[in-house]
Task: structure prediction
Amino acid sequence: MKDPNIVFSGHCGQYSRDGISVEVSIARLEHEAAWTLEVVNGNRTSIVWDDPFPSDDAAYAEFLATVEGEGMQVFLDDGNVIPFKRP
Result:
């Protein structure tokens, strides 16, 4: 069986504000309606929202609301990240 195609939103890309840049990824599986939201910071730490969104516009609006409400620093590593053990 072939893996489903991934559809990426036009909202995907770099976003910079207050001297902090992140990569915003909004995507869904080809045959599904729900969109996922992921933000990756400069250290390649991924922040993924638990709940899917009904549209890519809704996902992007949530990202912008987070930036407005909490600031870009919310996407930075703050010491709560536990790295995987390396062999």
User: Anything to note?
Assistant: The radius of gyration is 14 Å. The chain has one domain: 6-75. Helices lie at 56-70.
